[in-house]
Write a structure and sequence with these properties.
The chain is of the alpha+beta class and 91 residues long. Helix content is 25%, strand content 18%.
Length: 91
C-alpha cells in the first residue's frame, strides 16, 4: 500500500491535535499508540512480524518518553499459532 507511513502519521497527528484546543495545557494530551496490522509485507526484507517505532536520535539514542509510537504487525511473518485462533474465532 502506497504512502501508508504518511497516512498513519497523519491519523496519529490528528488524534493528538484533537485532544486540546488553542490555549490549553499540553499536559492534557494523552498518549497515542498507532497500531497497524497488515496482510502484506510492509517492510521488504524485514522478517519480524512486529516492528515498533519511536521518536529518537539515531546518532546517540535518546528517546522522548510519552511521544506517540507506532507498532506495525506483518501477518505474513506472524507464527501460525498466533494467527489461527484469530481466524477461527467467528464471534
Amino acid at each position: 500500500m502506497r504512502h501508508i507511513g504518511n497516512r498513519l502519521s497523519y491519523y496519529k497527528s490528528k488524534l493528538i491535535s484533537e485532544q486540546i484546543a488553542s490555549g490549553e495545557r499540553y499536559d492534557a494530551i494523552q498518549r497515542v499508540i498507532c497500531v497497524c496490522i497488515t496482510s502484506f509485507e510492509l517492510f521488504p526484507g524485514v522478517a519480524e512480524y512486529v516492528n515498533g517505532f519511536r521518536f529518537y536520535n539515531p546518532r546517540n539514542g535518546p528517546c522522548f518518553d510519552g511521544i506517540p509510537e507506532e507498532i506495525y504487525g506483518q501477518l505474513p511473518f506472524a507464527p501460525e499459532k498466533l494467527i489461527l485462533p484469530l481466524l477461527s474465532n467467528k464471534n
